[in-house]
Each structure stands twice: as C-alpha cells, then as structure tokens.
Amino acid sequence: MKQILVVEDDSLLNKMLTYNLTADGYSVTSVLNARTAADTLTRQKFDLVLLDINLPDGNGYDLCRLIKPDQPDTIVIFLTANDQESDQIRGYEAGAVDYITKPFVLGALQRKIKAMLSMLEHHRTTKDVYDDGRLVLDFSEQSATLNGTPVNLSAMEYRMLNLFRKNPRQVLTRGLLLEKLWDVDEKYVDEHTLTTTISRIRSKIESDGGAPYIKTVYGMGYQWTGGEAKVSDISHQVKTPVSNLKMVTDTLLTYPVSDAERTDFVRGIRSQTDKLDFLFQALVKTSRLETGVIRLEKKACRLFDTVAQAMSGIVYAAEKKEIAVSVDCPEHLTLSHDSKWTTEALFNLLDNAVKYTPSRGKITVSVVPWEMYVEIKVSDTGKGISESNHAAIFRRFYREEEIHEQQGVGIGLYLARQIVMQQGGYIKVVSVPGQGSDFSIMLPVR
Fold first, then answer.
1. Contact 132, 226 (CB under 8 A)
2. Which among 143, 164, 145, 167 is positioned nearest to 154, based on CA atoms?
3. Cα separation of 61 and 168, whole Å?
4. What does the pLDDT look like over 289-328, one tens digit per residue?
5. Of 150-159, 275-284, 421-430, where does mean pLDDT reach its minimum?
6. How many other C-beta atoms can be found within 10 angstroms of the C-beta atom of residue 353?
7. How far apart are CA 1 and CA 3, in angstroms?
8. Of 121, 146, 123, 127, which Cα lies nearest the Cα of 136?
9. Which of 440, 304, 444, 424 is nearest to 376 (CA)?
10. What is the distance between the alpha carbons of residues 417 and 347, in angstroms, rounded to a whole number?
11. How far is CA 32 from CA 37, 68, 427, 429, in A?
C-alpha cells in the first residue's frame, strides 16, 4: 500500500484530502503544521507528499528540502494559493515534481497522484543483490550479512566481490583483477594489495566454516564458486519429478495397461506435477520478494488473526498424525506488520513442525510482546536440529541428509526469513537433537 503524507493547515481541506485518498486505497498520514511533518518524516518513509507552502510554523520549501536528502524517491507536490511564477520556480528548485495552485479539481489531483505513483513504481530501480541464503551482498546500499550477521566490507572489497559474482565459475587472472580494480583515486593496485584484499574478503565471508566462495586456481588466478550448491540443489529438485513423469508417460504410451493401473499412473503424474508446481510457486515468490516486485505493506492489525490464518493451514495434517496443537496469543494485540506475508512465514514454520514431529507429538504456538519486539514462537517435540546446521537450514534448497524421505523442496525457511527481514525483524532458532525445536519470529514493535 502506497504511503502518502498530507501537510495542510486548513483542517477541512486536510480532512477532505485524507478521506478521498484513503478511499482510493492509499495509507494516508495527515498533519497540520511543519513541525509535526518534520517529526513524522524522521520516523516514516512516504511515496508521495502533498505539501502546502504557507504553514503556521514554517514553509513548505524548507520541508521539501528536508525530505529530498533522506527520501530521494519521494514525490513532492505543492498545493498552494501562491500562484506567482517565481513561487513555482522556487518550488521546483526545492525538489517538487508538480506545483498545483488552489482552487483545484480534486478528481484531477487524484488521477495525477495515481499516474505519478504508477510511474514511480515503473521506474523504481531493482536492487543489485547477491543472496544465496547464507551470504547477502547488497551492492546498491553497500551492506552485507553472513547468516544474518552484519559484515563490514570496504569499497575495494565490494568492487572485487561484484566482479567475482558477475563472472561465476570463470577463472579471473591476477592481471585481469589488477586491471579491473584500479583504485577509485587512480592509485595503482599492486600484487600485494590484491593478495591481501582477497585474504581479507575470505576471512569475512567464509568465517562461518561453510563452503568457500573464492577458489584459488594455482598459476592462473581465482574463481567464484558461490551459489554452486544452490544450482545443483535446484537441479535435483526438478530432475526427480521430471524423470518420474517421463517414465510414467513412456509406460502408458508403450504398454497396454488395465484401467486400475492407468488410474494409479495418472495419480502418480498428478502427484509429480503438484510437486513441480509447488517448487515453481516457491521460486516465483522468492524471486519477486528479492527483486522488489512484491513490496510488503505493513499496517496495524490484530496478530491473533494472522496466527489463526497460519494455523488453519496445518490443522488437517496435524490431526492425521494426532499431534496436539495449542496456541497462546493475546486476542487484542495489534502490531504493524504485513498480515498476508507474515501468515506465509508462520505457516512455513508450522508446516515444518508438523512434518518433523512424530505422531502424537506436540506443537505449541505462543505470542509474547517484549519491549522492542513481539515474539511468535513455534515449539515442537520433533527430531531437533544439530547446532552446526542452525545457519544452514535457512539457505535456499538446503535439506539435511537424514530427512530427504520427507516431502519438501527446502525453501520454506529461506522464504520465511526473507519475509521477516523485510519487515525489520529476524528469526532465531533454539534446537537440540532429540529434544525438539523452538523457532521464533521476532517482529519490531515500531
């Protein structure tokens, strides 16, 4: 949902703008003066600001200049009685994209806002991110995390990593790297600096003991190996059902079969296509979240309803295994969150709990508000997870060797973490083999 800020000291006009824009499906925040507007802008980002110039405690020009450095993509439209050409020029110089004089036609303003927001969405740049579920490198914002823990990288290290990840599996010679990594100040990058930089990068992005990202090809240079496990895992997930489908259809086309056998074969085809469809849908959701096509929309709503919606998806499976499920959630607790996508994340945790909890086991869901976060904890009496795998389970398509008999594609926890992280939260796990697991979604109070 698009966020609009209305800054207008005329209370009637303020109310009318707020009412009509809310009816159009926008989330509208309205204020009557410059000071409140400035405070609001420090706490929240907006897609569009409707801004009066003559405010009781300041002017719109100064507010516009305040908005642009921190929120450069925010559209600012001046709504004002100042109709002099010099005022309009001053407004555009302050950073506004339009200048509308009063009185104006409300319907025309609504259509203009819709068109501008549509244009903003169309031209919004896609973030340049590498993410394999373990290492996240955001080259747009120069930030990085390893298993959710921030990693500090220098500008030179980001440039080198970007060069590697754009040339996967290619051997980059030391000469090529020295040529491409010419310092931003045009200072020569020598052999020693190159060796030191690669060593420093490795110590930062491979510190968890996982598979190496940069391979030394002796006598030649270096090779980026990140993401190889991900590709092979996708291949494995697709190969098995495709192989089964080919085998079954070849059998049906080649040999005479009875009606009963044909029915069994068709059911097998349906089962395998369902698995492929599930994998496809999971990949689409993940891709859209990562590229920003899907934008999470947080708004204050009851957490009880979100939990109930997630629970409804696992009731039948839990009953089949005679698993006792209990929920402890304050009925009237409200929290700003994206209910639809948080439901998806919580369902993924619950679905895993049902899969890996033996018959007649127990699953407990508890919601506890803390000072900075609200915790949604899913506890089970399942097989548990060894501590060495606590980070790995959040990777794309990762599945522990001993649970491959369970149906799944290994993307649920990765997707859940992406959803929660995009809302400013995180997921933590506490688990011991043979003693069950506790997965907690931590969502920020503000």
1. yes
2. 143
3. 48
4. 666 656 788 999 999 999 999 999 899 899 999 999 999 9
5. 275-284
6. 26
7. 6
8. 146
9. 440
10. 12
11. 8, 20, 39, 45
Compute φ and ψ for 165, nearest 5 degrees.
Answer: -70, -20
For residue 352 the two structure tokens come to 């895993």
pTM value is 0.49
**How many Cβ atoms are within 10 Å of 370's Cβ, its own excluded?**
9
Per residue, what are the HEC states of the chain?
Answer: CCEEEEECCCHHHHHHHHHHHHHCCCEEEEECCHHHHHHHHHHCCCCEEEECCEECCEEHHHHHHHHHHHCCCCEEEEEECCCCHHHHHHHHHHCCCEEEECCCCHHHHHHHHHHHHHHHHHHCCCCCEEECCCEEEECCCCEEEECCEECCCCHHHHHHHHHHHCCCCCEEEHHHHHHHCCCCCCCCCCHHHHHHHHHHHHHHHCCCCCCCCEEEECCCEEEECCCHHHHHHHHHHHHHHHHHHHHHHHHHHHCCCCHHHHHHHHHHHHHHHHHHHHHHHHHHHHHHHHHCCCCCCCEEEEHHHHHHHHHHCCHHHHHHCCCEEEEECCCCCEEEECHHHHHHHHHHHHHHHHHHCCCCCEEEEEEEECCCEEEEEEEECCCCCCHHHCCHHHCCCCCCHHHCCCCCCCCHHHHHHHHHHCCCCEEEEEECCCCCEEEEEEEECC
